[in-house]
Design brief:
There is one protein chain. With 321 residues, this protein is an alpha/beta fold. It contains 8 helices and 17 strands. The strands form 4 sheets. A 7-stranded parallel β-sheet has the order 7-11-6-1-4-5-12, with helices on both faces. The structure holds flavin-adenine dinucleotide. The site of flavin-adenine dinucleotide (FAD) has 28 residues, from α6, α7, β16 and α8.
Length: 321
C-alpha cells in the first residue's frame, strides 16, 4: 500500500544537516511509491525547502515563527502537530539526533502511536519493511515490524545513504502558519562552547582519544590527523573524566553514538560502554600499547604501539599523498 510519509528536516546555522537527506531516503523505502513530505520548522528556513526536494522529497511544508528559532520540545511539538493535523500521514520519520530523540517520544505520545527508534537499516520495502535497531548497547540487533497504526521511526545518522542530489527535481514549498502559544520555555540566547570543526555525530572520520593521550596537549597530534582527514575529534569517558577534553566529545553509552566511515581509537582500552557508541563504525583502527586491549576485538586494523609514535607516522605518510 502506498503511504504518505512525513519527514522532519533539521537545519543548523542556515544549512540542512545530512540526516535530513537520510530520513528522506528512509521515507522513500517505506512509502511504497507514495508521497514523501518534508517538514522544516524554525525561523527563516523557507529557502532550505528546495534542497529537501533535490534530495527526493515530493513537497515541503515550512513552519516559521520567531519562537521556533531555537529548538524547544514545546514549540516544535506545536508546530509538528499542526502539520500532522493538516497532512494526516501514514508514517513519520525523524533523525535519531539530539532533537529527534527529544521530540519523537512527545509526538508519539500525542499521537498514541508506537515508536521504532534508532533504526540503522531497513530490510524490504513498503508494508514488508522490517526495521533493524541495536539493542543491549550495540551487542545485538533486533528486527522490528510495525503491526498497526501510524508508523513512526527515528533513523541513526550516517547509516542510511541519502539519494543522489538532483537539482532538476521540482516540488512545492508551502508555508503553514501556526500560532505558537503558551510556551513554557523560551530560549533567549545560545552560548556555544565551540563552533569550530566538523560535527562529531555526522563526521565521516572520527579520531578518538582515550586516557592514553595522557593530557589535554596529548590531543594535539590527533587534532592534526583529524584536520588532514577532514574528521572530528572524539573521546572516551576516561579522557573526559581526566579533564583532557570536554564532555561534549564523549562517545559511548552515556555519550554520543557515531557511525563514521573511519574511526581511529587512540589510547582507548575498549570498555563495553565506549564500544556502545562506536562499534557500528564502518572501518575501525585501534592504536594501543597493550596487545590484549579489548578494543582490538572490534578493530578492523590494530596497531600495537605508542600513539605518540604511530600518529606522527600516519600524518607524515598522509601528507605524502
Ligand atoms: P583506560 O581504560 O584507562 O584505557 C587507556 C588505554 O590507553 C589502555 O588500553 C592503555 O593500554 C592505552 N595506552 C596508554 N598509553 C598509551 C600510548 N602512549 N599509546 C597507545 N595506547 C596507550 N566510557 C566511554 O568511553 N563512554 C561512555 O559513554 C561511557 N559510559 C559509561 C557509563 C557507565 C554507567 C559506566 C559505569 C562507565 C562508562 N564509561 C564510558 C567508562 C568505561 O567503563 C571506561 O572506564 C572508559 O571508557 C575508559 O576510558 P579509556 O579507554 O580512555 O581509559
Amino acid at each position: 500500500m502506498s503511504k504518505k510519509v512525513v519527514v522532519l528536516g533539521e537545519a543548523r546555522e542556515g544549512a540542512l544537516r545530512n540526516v535530513s537527506f537520510e530520513t528522506i531516503a528512509a521515507a522513500k523505502k517505506i512509502s511504497g511509491g507514495g508521497e514523501v513530505v518534508g517538514v522544516l520548522i524554525g525561523d527563516s528556513i523557507q529557502s532550505l525547502g528546495e534542497e529537501m526536494i533535490h534530495y527526493g522529497a515530493d513537497r515541503v511544508i515550512t513552519v516559521e515563527h520567531p519562537h521556533l528559532k531555537q529548538y524547544t520540545s514545546d514549540g516544535y511539538s506545536q508546530a509538528f502537530m499542526a502539520v500532522h493535523e493538516q497532512e494526516k500521514p501514514d508514517a513519520i520519520v525523524f533523525g535519531h539526533t539530539a532533537l529527534g530523540k527529544d521530540l519523537s517520544p512527545k509526538i508519539a505520545s500525542k499521537l498514541a502511536s508506537g515508536l521504532i527508534s534508532d533504526v540503522t537499516a531497513i530490510e524490504g520495502e513498503d508494508d514488508a519493511a522490517v526495521f533493524i535497531r541495536p539493542i543491549y548497547s550495540g551487542k545485538a540487533f533486533e528486527k522490528v515490524k510495525n503491526k498497526e497504526g501510524i508508523l513512526f521511526i527515528t533513523v541513526r545518522p550516517n547509516n542510511i545513504a541519502p539519494l543522489e542530489h538532483d537539482a532538476s527535481r521540482t516540488g512545492e514549498v508551502t508555508s503553514l502558519t501556526v500560532d505558537i502559544t503558551n510556551l513554557r520555555t523560551v530560549i533567549k540566547e545560545v552560548i556555544r562552547k565551540s563552533t569550530e570543526g566538523v560535527d562529531l555525530s555526522e563526521a565521516k572520520v572520527v579520531i578518538a582519544g582515550g586516557r592514553g593521550v595522557k593530557s589535554a596537549e596529548g590531543f594535539a597530534p590527533l587534532q592534526e590527523l583529524a584536520n588532514l582527514l577532514g574528521g572530528a575529534i572524539g573521546a572516551s569517558r576516561g579522557a573526559c573524566d581526566a579533564d583532557y577534553c570536554d564532555y561534549s566529545l564523549q562517545i559511548g553509552q552515556t555519550g554520543k553514538v557515531v557511525t563514521p566511515d573511519l574511526y581511529i581509537a587512540a589510547g582507548i582500552s575498549g570498555a563495553i560502554q565506549h564500544m556502545a557508541g562506536m562499534s557500528n563504525s564502518k572501518v575501525i583502527v585501534a592504536i594501543n600499547k597493550d596487545p590484549e586491549a579489548n578494543i582490538f576485538k572490534v578493530a578492523d586494523y590494530g596497531i600495537v604501539g605508542d600513539l605518540f609514535e604511530v600518529i606522527p607516522m600516519m600524518i607524515e605518510e598522509i601528507k605524502k599523498i
